[in-house]
Design a protein that fits this description.
The protein is an alpha+beta fold and 163 residues long. It has two helices and eight strands.
Length: 163
Amino acid sequence: MAELNQTKDGGKPLTGRKVFAIFAGAFALIIGVNVFMAYNAIGTFPGLEVENSYIASQTFDAERKAQEALNWDVSAAIEGDEVLLTIIGPDGAPARVEAIEATIGRATQRTDDQVLAFRQNDVGVHVADIDPLDFGKWELRFVATAANGTPFRQRIQLILPES
């Protein structure tokens, strides 16, 4: 005679407690993964661009017009352990730049950001040393100040191939 706690094939019966445990375990796993993903998303989010977008919008058009009036042509490249930034003025010669504040990093997180210190070489190209970068998409964010004090803001996407 078979025991009451076994099925015909010798296994234990599926009880309400087992179903509840499977159900609760599945939801606990889903909630745990969601909490982990949300924590990582918040922890790597770069944050706000400006503290108050309304205040920033008040001067946006004037700053944009001043920047466009410079008529600079800007390009950037990564060669080895250096970032090369070329700023050409409307006359085709290197533009006169008083200062450059720049950062290179990923667009989606700030953990790999590197602050750059540019120096101008003998052909008018601005050069900054960097730590080795991994392959993928990088963003050069900079503000170059013109001789007349006009800030020139730009972001340039740079793609490093897998080596």
